[in-house]
């Protein structure tokens, strides 16, 4: 029996210059190290799920850097969504090609994976526009038994500074998710920290950043000492899930 295995990579914050840093962390080097570790441990995942803030500066070169790195290290499909720092036009022009895809959804076995855009131009916080919310509801599949939904901004309060930039219409979103039949899992980034919560019938999972980490439960942004990492998800036909966060 085949069970889909996904690698979630979030918030790499690449810059045009490969030697560029975010809070004294070289984001290109850490992403390369994270991806190499994932490829070594899990050579053939069904896909990589890149959940936003792929670029820090939104430049064409930052996306070229990401494309070259992915294509050098893996031939497996990568599905991407935008974060608040991303330039969607540059992302589509300079990143999306071949196995790097920007799709509304993909079906694997009993699961449908839905990709949503929570970006609000010029803002740190996220929101699902009415058009995006309608698209989400329209892409819920009656044929799929379970759903995995990928967004950038946290749809829950994390008790820290990051709450100021979470998903603004989270109640409407979670209500729509809760109405889906079968297992439903929401994965997100943005917070640069690990998160796990079972809320009613919804499993909510946050991933660490592939670069700098943020301390949880702080009123202002504080750099954490934890290493970069990624989340692994194995999805079973009956809706069971195995997941773990792996750090360098």
The tally of structural domains comes to: 1
Largest sheet: 6 strands, mixed
- In the CATH hierarchy, the third-tier topology is known as Purple Acid Phosphatase, chain A, domain 2
Q: According to CATH, what is the class?
A: Alpha Beta
The class by helix and strand makeup works out as alpha/beta
* Helix proportion: 10-25%
The average pLDDT score comes to 97
Question: Which percent range describes the beta-strand content?
Answer: 25-35%
* Total number of strands: 14
The shape is: globular
Distance between the termini: 30 Å
Output the strand order for the largest sheet.
Answer: 6-5-4-1-13-14
Which residue ranges are poorly predicted, with pLDDT under 50 across at least 5 consecutive positions? Answer: none
Following the backbone from N to C, one meets helices and strands in this order, namely: EEEHEHEHEEEHEHEEEEE
The CATH homologous superfamily name equals: Metallo-dependent phosphatases
Number of helices: 5
Quickly give the CATH architecture: 4-Layer Sandwich
Specify Rg, calculated over alpha carbons: 17 Å
């Amino acid at each position: 029996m085949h069970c889909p295995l996904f690698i979630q990579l979030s918030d790499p914050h690449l810059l045009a210059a490969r030697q560029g840093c975010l809070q004294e962390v070289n984001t290109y080097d850490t992403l390369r190290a994270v991806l190499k570790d994932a490829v070594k441990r899990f050579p053939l995942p069904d896909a990589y799920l890149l959940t936003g803030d792929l670029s820090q500066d939104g430049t064409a070169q930052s996306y070229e850097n990401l494309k070259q790195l992915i294509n050098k290290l893996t031939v497996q499909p990568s599905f991407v969504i935008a974060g608040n720092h991303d330039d969607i036009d540059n992302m589509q022009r300079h990143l999306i090609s071949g196995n790097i895809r920007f799709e509304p959804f993909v079906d694997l076995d009993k699961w449908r994976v839905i990709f949503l855009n929570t970006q609000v131009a010029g803002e740190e916080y996220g929101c699902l526009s009415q058009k995006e919310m309608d698209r989400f509801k329209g892409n819920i599949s009656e044929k799929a038994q379970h759903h995995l939904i990928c967004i950038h901004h946290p749809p829950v309060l994390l008790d820290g500074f990051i709450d100021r930039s979470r998903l603004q219409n989270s109640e409407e979103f979670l209500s729509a998710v809760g109405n889906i039949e079968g297992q439903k899992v929401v994965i997100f980034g943005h917070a640069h920290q690990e998160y796990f919560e079972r809320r009613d019938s919804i499993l909510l999972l946050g991933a660490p950043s592939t670069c700098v980490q943020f301390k949880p439960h702080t009123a202002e942004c504080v750099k954490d000492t934890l290493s970069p990492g990624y989340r692994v998800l194995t999805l079973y036909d009956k809706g069971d899930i195995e997941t773990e966060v792996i750090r360098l």
